[in-house]
Amino acid sequence: MQAAKAGKLITAAGVAYEYRSFPDGMYAMHATDPQCFAVTLVRWAAPSAAPLPRA
Question: Is 22:29 a contact under the CB 8 Å cutoff?
Answer without folding.
Answer: yes
